[in-house]
Amino acid sequence: MFMEPKTAAALDEAKAVLAAGHLGDPNVVGVAKGFRTRDGELTEEPVVIALVRKKRRAALVSRRRLLPATIGGHGVDVVETGEFRFSGATKAAAATPIAERFRPPLQGGSLGSLADGTLGTLGCLVRDRTDGSICVLSANHVLANFGVAAQGAAIVQPAPLDGGAAEANTVARLKRSIPLTQDGPNTADAAIAQLEPGIGVSSTVARNLMAPISATHPAIGLAFLASVHGGTFMAKIGPVLEQLDVELLTANSTAVAVEGRRIEKVGRSSGYTSSVVLDTTATVVVDGYRFTDLIYAQRFSLVGDSGAVVCEGGNGKTFTPLPAIACRMLGAAGAFYDLPLAGDNALADQARDEFLGESLVGNLVVQLVYKNLDLAVNRLEAATASPEEKAEARRFYDKYRTLVASVLGDPASPVALTQEHLDDVRTIFAGISPDLVTLAEKQALWVIFDDVVAPALGKNRAQLLEYMNDLAVYRQVVTSLREIPGLDVDGTYGFSSR
User: Fold this and answer.
1) Are 220 and 153 in contact (CB under 8 A)?
2) For burial by CB atoms within 10 Å, which of 29, 53, 87, 350 has the most?
3) pTM for this entry
4) What would the pLDDT profile of 116-166 be if each residue is shown by its tens digit?
């Protein structure tokens, strides 16, 4: 999509006005120029883009903080980004972190600065084009501590927090980094450290969790930012290599990130994961640093994965783990409807991990429950169901509990969504008490039912998962949910400029 230079220059001026007036607002994380997104689809209307942590209706925002609809005759598109943080800042809990000692050091293993105690991931080995030396590639904030570390600082493997806090574990020394600035936009968070003499060289990936980088398995980015549920920002590999003046050890082994394409990586904390590229020109502000022209993917990395090199490949649905579901929701709903839901926690976990957790839309639903759990439980505990509501709830529970369990227990289940099922869903939506859902929430449910649920008629479990992994379907759901005032839709990136 092309933007006329004259239009781009005018939008830059409008963007500066927006930044001067609103970037100090704690809810505004950044500004950009691009094209307006409407109903989840990118239009050809050039606009200024305001990136906010949480998007709310104008009626819910004070006049002082209300963002303008236009600036200098150009429209302003407000896009929700949520909270993001550098993923290598602190030690992360993981079931099996890749924290062991590798000699030679391997891609995907734990890595950090000895003096600064940083924690991150060894991205891969690269060749310095200035002198031919072999270097480690990772994030700036892992190797250079945001540019604070001195050239020649010891880089240890594993990281100090993983037991590597000794000079004897030094595998490389900091050589140079891409500067990070709070005065202007950044496009990458990356640095290199030159291997110490006698340290071997290997292109193998830690624990053989992924194929090495090659012409048929090209690198597309470097992960460095993660949200609490694994949403990940990545720098594009081309600019990273160019700015550091290095090259991969295997020729012709990079590729341009493409929206909708499957990707995979191996990182210190989350190990092997595979997701799907959702955006290729994302912009975010974190800790005062503004980054532009980034790649974004869902549930792809965790704290400690910073520096991991991302490649094309994978199944697109081997995601970062989710925290355990709180049974408070089941208990509160069971008490409200007088149903034995508290005993179905294992079934709910199975639905989360073996069905919802395998799709873009499903992950969004899971995150929605986590982020709005207190709100839902408080409503359930404050309301009282009528005898008629309890009877209807019991009827549907008895009708579907066994069926749901059987479908979840059989990945190849031929059971398909029928018109009877859709009619029952419609009845359930219509019967939800006003004490439990607001009018805006119910309206959004109806939009999702008409635009997303109803078109799934006739699909079995496998087909439903494929459908729920459709990027267009995901966007439809996100768009509808973001119309609900007060609903926390997590830090999933709002599609903005391309």
Assistant:
1) no
2) 87
3) 0.62
4) 999 999 999 999 999 999 999 999 999 999 999 999 999 999 999 999 999
